[in-house]
Amino acid sequence: MSESLPQGAKPFDFTGNAKEWFGIWIVNLLLSIVTIGIYSAWAKVRAKKYFYNHTYVEGRNFDYHATGKQILIGRLIVIAAVIVFQVVASVLPILGLLLLIGLLFVFPWLIVRSMIFNARMSSFSNVRFGFVGSVGQAFLTFIIYPILTALTLYTTFPILDRAMKRFSINNHKLGQAQFKMEVGLGPFYKAFLVAIVWIVVVGLLGAVLSGFSFTEFAMAMDNPNAPPSEVMKVVGLFYLLFFVAFLPAAFIYQALTRNAVYNNTTLEGGHQFASNVTAGRLLWLAVSNMVVVICTLFLMLPWAQVRMARYLAAHTGFIPGGSMDDFVTQQQEAGGALGDAYTDLEGIDVGLPI
């Protein structure tokens, strides 16, 4: 895989540093604990604002405009709905079942509202993002596709993954300029098969070299009289094989699909994106970050977050199709004062990893 971005690509630049972010992070953590989680809404805003403000492209940075109050109101709405559902389900089970079925239709609406909120609260060089996806599209993508994927024993997971990414990217706008992802299923299935091959080969090789047996594992777990040392040995081997086989596979898939998505995504006006992350580097960062964070009782988490953000930014590029000044000016004029109308949106956020 290429170690450099394509010619003409302007790399993203993350300018945050661990010391500065630690100061914000520790205050967020302490105030969230003292307020029994209430301040976490404001903590989320401060965190997003820090990482957005310190991410630049061509000397222009991103920004986040939501308030803690908006996030808190959104969370209270969701919590209230969950409480009402639990009460109704315990008092009137049949009605609770009907409400559960109804949630299948409410969930897509929540996804769309979440994406609209997060898009409108984000901006690049004072140009707001937007989201125009429909509830019908969300229902197909997040309800129908997952059911079909489960019925096919997840052999069609790449189809689901691509559908989710297309729903997110193709319905986003920057000002009035539309994003467009045009990538076939080939790269997704290639990444999926490479990850599966890694799991099978490493799993079998590890089982042979370590003498691990699923039969012994099942017997040790089901036998209450098994010596603790034997149980720990078998369980330890299982988790070691799981770590060595599945964790790298996840990063292989993530790296290959990320590159395919970014390298085939455009922004109206002739602008393109690029990515050249590698599975090996992503895995190294994730594992070393995890070891350092655990050994320092999570005090080095800000350092790990900044380290990962810096790597991803440096390996993500923007290929302008013309003058950035002209593009930004055009979108600012097209957007007008729409940003002022976003203050009454509720901060519903389902936290989708797409």
UniProtKB/TrEMBL annotation:
Keyword Lyase: no
Residue spans crossing the bilayer: 22-42, 72-89, 95-117, 129-154, 191-214, 234-256, 282-301
The entry's keywords: Membrane, Transmembrane, Transmembrane helix
InterPro entries: DUF898 (IPR010295)
Protein's UniProt name: Uncharacterized membrane protein YjgN (DUF898 family)
UniProt source species: Litoreibacter meonggei
